[in-house]
Amino acid sequence: MNKAFTKEDDGSAGPQRLDDLPISPHPNHVTPNGLAQLHARAEALETEIARLRAMGEDAEALYPLAVAERDLRYVEARLASAILIEPPEGDYPRVQFGAVVDVLDEDGRPARYTIVGEDEADPAKGLIAAPSPLARALLEAETGDVVEWPRPNGMVELEIVAIRKA
Question: Which residues does the UniProt record annotate as the domain Transcription elongation factor GreA/GreB C-terminal (predicted)?
């Protein structure tokens, strides 16, 4: 093969572009708080990118710059596809996106979940992504209903005891 058609590594690090992060196939529903978090994350990433670019061709800045640029592309795509779901004017008649849901499990242990968008989800804080099995089990249920939540170790019944705004 003619050398003109091959690319040789000259040893320079140069800027790199990381593959984009996967985007969920689900509709990108967001709460007002989730939308604010996406905007704040975009601003923080833009600031970080500017800081890293100011370092020039410093080899230690190249990979973090590529990561920040990739993350910003993801956040910008999520902002572009965001569908803001405002809470209803009155009370929630049933579990809907954005609702805070108080439940009791089969043993009477209480738990509280808020149905949010995927980027806002944080299960440790009770923020559950709408496409998750738990959220799907809760959605459309009313106070007093018992729903079945499929888990890897078996089905769990949850009684809805309250539904309210965040």
Answer: 94-164
**CATH level 2 (architecture), domain 27-86:** Orthogonal Bundle (1.10)
- Decide whether 27-86 matches 100-164 in CATH topology: no
Domain boundaries, the chain: 27-86, 100-164
Q: What is the spatial distance between Cα 77 and Cα 62, in angstroms, rounded to a whole number?
A: 23
* CATH 3.10.50.30 correct for 100-164: yes
What is the spatial distance between Cα 145 and Cα 137, in angstroms, rounded to a whole number? 11
Q: What is the pTM of this model?
A: 0.83
> What is the residue-level pLDDT of the chain in tens, covering all 166 positions?
444 444 444 444 455 789 999 999 999 999 999 999 999 999 999 999 999 999 888 777 889 999 999 999 999 999 999 999 998 888 888 999 999 999 999 999 999 999 999 999 999 999 999 999 999 999 999 999 999 999 888 999 999 999 998 8
Burial 108-126 (b: 16+ CB within 10 A, else e): eeeeebbbbbbbbbeeeee
